Amino acid sequence: MGTLLVLGTGAAYQRLCQLLVMAFIARNLGVERTGEFVQGSAAGAVLAVLAGSAVRPLVVREIAREPALAGAWIRAAVRARLRAGALLAAVGSCVALLASTQPLFWALCCLLALPAAYDLKVVLDMGARPRHEVLLESAACTVQVGLVGLWALDGGDGLATLAALQLASRCLYALAAVGAVRRLPAGSGPALRAMAWPASRVSATILLGELLQAAETWLVAAFGGNRAAGLYAVAQRIAAGAMLPSAQLVRLLLPHLFRSGIGGDAARTTRTALRSVAWATLPIAAGGAVVASPLCALFGADFAAGGPVLGLLLAATSAQHLGWQCGHALFAAGRDRPFTRQLLLQSVLLVALLPPLTCTSGAVGAALALGLSHVGGAGAGWQAARRIMPLAARALLAPCIAAAATACAALAVADAFGTCAAIAAGAAAFALSLWAVELRQSWRRLGHGLAEASGFGE
Fold first, then answer.
1. What is the DSSP code (8-state) at residue 186?
2. CA spacing 20 to 30 A to 169: which of 30, 393, 437, 450?
3. Which strand (E) or helix (H) includes residue 31?
C-alpha cells in the first residue's frame, strides 16, 4: 500500500503539471502551432527510443531474475543509452541546422535524447525504490510548469524558447538521476552486448512499437496536417491524465508479473492484474467519452472538435493497458515468440491503418487506427496467454457492467446540469460499483493477494 500511495500521489501531481503545461502552450499557440511544437517533442522522443529505450524491458527482466545485480544492469543500460543518444542528437542537430527553417527549435528537440538516457522509471521499481524516481520526476515537472507558466504570462510564442525550457527541466531530472544511479549497490553483471544477440528479435520488436508510440503526433501531422496534430496532442494529454490510475497500477503490477514468472503463481498474478486494470480503465473510458468535448474545450474553444478523438483514445488506452498485462506475463515467462508476435501485430495494424484513416478523417481517423491496433494486440496477447495459463473472460464482466453504469450516470445529468455534474455522477456510480463488487469485503487486504501470488512482496 505504501508503494501504491507513493506512485499514485506522485503520478497525479506529475500528470496535473503536464496538463497545466499543455494548457499554457495550447492557449498561447493555438491549434496549428501547438501541432508544430508537439512534432518537435516527438522528434526528441523518437531519438530517445532509438538510443535504447527498447532495452529497458530486457534489463527489468534480468533484474527480476538476479536482484543483486540491479545496480550493474542499470549502470550498463544508462551508459549504452547515453552513448547512442549523444550520437543521434549530434546527427539530428546537424540535419536540423542544415535543412530546417527553424533550426534552433529542432536542434533543441533533438538534444532531448541526452537526458532521456537517465530515465529510471520501472527499473528502480524492481529494486523497491520507486520513491527516488517519483521525487525526481515531480521536481522536474514542477520546474517545467514554473518556466512555461512564466513564458505564457510574458506572452511568449517562440517554439525554440519552449523547447529550451523543456530541455532544461529534463536536464534537471538527469542531473539528479546521476546521484541516484551512483547510490545503487555495486556489482558486476553481464555486459548488455552479451545479451544483445539472443534478445535481438525481442529488442527489435519493442523498438518498433516504441518508435511508433513516440512518433504518433509526428505521423498524424504528416498525414493530417498541423491542425490534426494539435487536436490529437491535446486529446492525448487529457486521455493520459484520465488513465493515470491505470498507468500507475500497470507500473505497480509490472514487478509482480516479472517476479511471478520466476517463482510465483503466474496464472493467479495475471488474472489479478487483468481484473485490476479493467476496473481502472473501462469505467473511466466509458464515462470520459460522455464529457470528452467539454474537456477538450478547456484548452481553447477550437479544441472542442477533439471530443471524438478523446473518446477513441480513452478506449484505445484501455485496450493497450489490458494487452500489456498479457504481454508482460508472456515476457516474464520467457515466451518471447508469442510476445513478439503480439507487439508486431499491433505495430503492423497501426502502420497499415493510420495513414489512410488520418488522410480521410484527420485526428479522429488517427485515434481510430490507434484503437484498432491496440484491440488487435490485446486480443493476440490474450489468446497467447490462455495457452499457457487458465484465464476466463468472465473475470472482466463486473468492470464492464461498472463501465456501463458510469456512462449512463454521466449521460443522465450531462445535458441538464453540465460537465462537472456529469463527471461527479459518473465518479459516484463507478465508486459505488467498485465498493459493492470488489472492496466491501476485502479492502483491508488490498494488495495482499497480489503479493502472495507473485512472491514479490508489497
1. P
2. 30
3. helix 2-48
| Contacts with 412 (C-beta within 8 Å, 6 or more apart), sequence order | 425
CA-to-CA dists, residue 264 to 60, 123, 218, 456, angstroms: 17, 20, 41, 8
Q: Which residue has the cell 555495486?
A: 186
C-alpha torsion 378→381→387→389, nearest 10 = -80
Render pLDDT for 77-87 as a digit per residue (tens, 0 to 9). Answer: 788 888 888 99
Cell numbers of 435, please? Answer: 465498493
Q: Which three cell numbers stand for residue 33?
A: 502551432
**373 vs 72: CA distance, rounded Å:** 36
Contact call for residues 169 and 143 (beta carbons, < 8 A): yes
In this predicted structure, what is the pLDDT of residue 71? 73
The pTM is what? 0.80
Let me know: does 141 contact 13? Beta carbons within 8 Å. yes
Find the Cα–Cα–Cα–Cα dihedral 380, 384, 389, 391, rounded to 10°: 20
156-208 pLDDT tens trace: 788 899 999 999 999 988 888 887 777 766 665 555 555 554 456 777 788 78
Per-residue model confidence (pLDDT) at position 3: 55
CB atoms within 10 A of CB 176: 18
What is the spatial distance between Cα 48 and Cα 121, in angstroms, rounded to a whole number? Answer: 14
- Alpha carbons 192 and 241: distance in angstroms, whole number: 34
Helices (H) and strands (E) in the chain, counts: 18, 0
Cα–Cα nearest to 45, from 6, 105, 85: 85
Q: Which grid coordinates are listed for 135?
A: 521525487
392 DSSP 8-state letter? -
Report d(CA 158, CA 28) in Å as an integer: 10
Q: Copy the grid coordinates of residue 245.
A: 490510475
Task: Specify the length of the chain in residues.
Answer: 458
User: Residues in the chain with pLDDT < 70?
Assistant: 1-8, 53-58, 60-62, 64-65, 67-68, 121-132, 184-200, 261-264, 439-458
